[in-house]
Design brief:
Helix 5 runs antiparallel to helix 7 and helix 9 runs antiparallel to helix 11. Strands 4-5-9-8 form a 4-stranded antiparallel beta sheet, with no helix packed on it. A 3-stranded mixed beta sheet has the order 3-6-7, with helices on one face. A two-stranded antiparallel ribbon has the order 1-2. The protein folds into 3 domains: about 90 residues, Butyryl-Coa Dehydrogenase, subunit A, domain 1, CATH 1.10.540.10; about 110 residues, Butyryl-CoA Dehydrogenase, subunit A, domain 2; about 150 residues, Butyryl-CoA Dehydrogenase, subunit A, domain 3 (Up-down Bundle), CATH 1.20.140. It is globular, with a radius of gyration of 21 Å. The protein has about 400 residues and is α+β, with helices and mostly antiparallel strands. It contains 11 helices and 11 strands. It is about 50% helix and about 15% strand. It binds flavin-adenine dinucleotide. Flavin-adenine dinucleotide binds next to strand 3, strand 5 and helix 11. Belongs to the acyl-CoA dehydrogenase family.
């Protein structure tokens, strides 16, 4: 396998790296952020900077204003963008918008794309993806979907509660998963200002890197025209896979950038800070942590690149994306945890970005499927394949 990147991709990588260093990192301590993420004003400024740099929404097609990046190219660019917690917001490649745009390009009608996708790709609007529900509704087990969509004339009437909905506050539209009368799951598109949609509250969370935070959304008799179904009725779970396999992987890419940033800071500190007569890095205990970091970072990158390459070959990669998600979320977490340790007291304070990366990253082992659920699903596939052979 040839790991050499083509010259145009190397150029894009270098361009993204400089953009993040010069235009994004200086805004990391901007006051227009709170515990629920960057404000809309800050997001717009970041997006404008990326637009001027020619880096906005690079993953969507050229027709939609992007660069039409392959999955492998995304792996390279998203890692660079992820070096700053504001980078994915700037490039308009953060969750949930990045995954939603991918799904919209794959499934939405031409009219739906013009109405919702085009302004989103231009960075003018945001979206959310509403699937998870409080008990007894869907969580790790999506089949427990409790939100209902009942046909009434030319419309569907949606009722239910969703929570953990990233970016819900001030999102312009939502993709809502609901159960039809025959029990089949369907995805609906709806503007967020439609009657009956209420953001009950924003949940206080460990992370603060997603614009709009994580909201609790109530849908009460929300009337959605049948024409606003995304794709075909009853194919909600299939489309969830269309969205989730690549979306899981793009989380891995962005968080790899954050883990690399933490590692770079830890290396720098370990080289400069002395204890017991020599730099920390020359103490075996610290040096081994740096070596372990490097191994975890490279293992993550290889899983990402391999799965991205398979996606580019047209494979669905449900198994591989589960595997990459578990490997990356756990390896990258270990990296950042070691960095906290290497930085000593500063590691648990806001003196360096590492504390922030540590708290922002924790949820990665839970959303888009907890590690246990991916292991369980992989185990079933492994056993099934063995039985079939
Ligand atoms: C920061 C954040 C952002 C999110 N954003 C969104 C969003 O934008 N849209 C959206 O729809 N959802 C979102 N989610 C929800 C997320 O996808 C769910 O939290 C996740 O799927 C787990 O569901 P749950 O929280 O209901 O956990 P539960 O289903 O209650 O599971 C709890 C725990 O049980 C264990 N478990 C479950 N099943 C198994 C099994 N088969 N084997 C072994 N152990 C198991 C796991 O350890 C799991 O963590 C987000 C969550 C977080 C934390």
């Amino acid at each position: 396998m040839n790991f050499e990147l083509p010259p145009e991709l190397l150029e894009l990588q270098a361009k993204t790296r400089s953009f993040i260093a010069e235009q994004v990192i200086p805004l990391e301590n901007d006051e227009r952020q709170n515990s629920h993420g960057p404000s809309e004003a800050l997001r717009r400024e970041l997006v404008e900077r990326a637009r001027v740099a020619g880096l906005l929404t690079p993953h969507v097609s050229r027709d939609m204003g992007g660069l039409g990046l392959s999955h492998v190219a995304k792996a390279v660019v998203f890692e660079e963008a992820g070096y700053s917690w504001l980078g994915p917001t700037a490039l308009n490649i953060h969750a949930p918008d990045e995954g939603n745009m991918h799904l919209m390009e794959a499934v939405a009608s031409a009219a739906q794309k013009e109405r919702w996708l085009r302004p989103q790709a231009a960075g003018q609007t945001r979206s959310c993806f509403a699937m998870t529900e409080p008990s007894p509704g869907s969580g790790s087990d999506p089949s427990m979907l409790a939100t209902t969509a009942v046909r009434d004339g030319e419309d569907y009437v949606i009722n239910g509660t969703k929570w953990f909905i990233t970016g819900a506050e001030d999102a312009h539209y939502a993709i809502v998963m609901a159960k039809m009368e025959d029990g089949a799951a369907t995805m609906f598109l709806t503007d967020m200002d439609r009657d009956g949609i209420v953001l009950a509250r924003n949940m206080d969370a460990m992370d603060r890197c997603f614009t709009g935070g994580h909201g609790v959304l109530r849908f009460t008799d929300v009337r959605v025209p049948a024409t606003d179904i995304l794709g075909e009725p009853g194919k909600g779970f299939r489309y969830a896979q269309v969205r989730l396999a690549p979306a899981r992987l793009t989380h891995c890419m962005r968080w790899l950038g954050q883990a690399r940033r933490a590692h770079d800071l830890a290396v720098d500190y370990a080289r400069r800070r002395e204890a017991f007569g020599k730099p920390l890095a020359e103490h075996e205990g610290v040096g081994f942590m740096l070596a372990d970091n490097d191994m975890d970072l490279q293992t993550s990158r290889l899983h990402i690149w391999h799965t991205a390459w398979l996606l580019d070959q047209g494979q669905k990669c449900n198994f591989e994306s589960s595997r990459a998600k578990v490997v990356c979320s756990e390896a990258q977490w270990r990296v950042v945890d070691r960095c906290v340790q290497i930085l000593g007291g500063q590691g648990v304070t806001a003196e360096t970005p590492v504390m922030r990366i540590f708290t922002d990253m924790r949820a990665f082992r839970i959303y888009d499927g907890p590690s246990e659920v991916h292991r369980w699903s992989m185990a079933r596939k492994i056993v099934r394949a063995a039985q079939a052979s």
